[in-house]
Amino acid sequence: MGAFEAFKVKVVMPASVPPERVNLLEAFGAEVILSHADKGTNESILLAKQISEENPSYYMPYQYGNQANPDAHYQTTGPEIVRDLPTVDAFVAGLGTGGTLMGVGRALKEHNPDVKIIATAPHPDDKVQGLRSIEHGFIPPILDLNKLDGRILVDGEEAFYWTRRLLTDSGVFVGVSSGATFATARKIAKKMSDEDREGTIVAMFADGGWKYLSTGIYGEDFKFDQSEIEGKTWW
Asked: If one looks up domain 2-54 in CATH, what number appears?
């Protein structure tokens, strides 16, 4: 959009993100500002807000606090799901900005009040931050935790495992947070099966695998090693 409208764009992200992210943004002409790697996306948000406040002519969309984020999913993603799958028992999405969960959740609840809206989140101490842990002290302003029916924690090893399995078994090339979301959907499906219930689960895959090619996680010889992935930002 910046290139199309001839707007100058600055993007703030942790220095620990895979290089694909930076390379793509710079290819479109954006200026990438890297925040401290060890402080994650929370530090990026603070730095972006500081830059915006110091430059009154700048506009910061601020996806964590912009109501247009959940509204877009309420008006488009949610109705699309209802149209294609009139009966949904559970909707699963990663806990990032909260926009998808809030917007889709609202649309699905209006259609079927009994549908369960479930967030996927990382363990608080897990270094693979494919998603947002609210225990870290930052809750996006657009996220209303009272509107969630549950929050299931997934560890890094499990997220990596299912990210690879989705590619090798089904040809679905997704990123780590999507692997975590799929793991959550499987947990819900198992619970339904254990209770001798059938149901329809919708899992939202919100990131593509191309963002992580340089990490080597899709290689046949990749093995999860907590010490090797510490300090990287997976989102």
From this structure: 3.40.50.1100
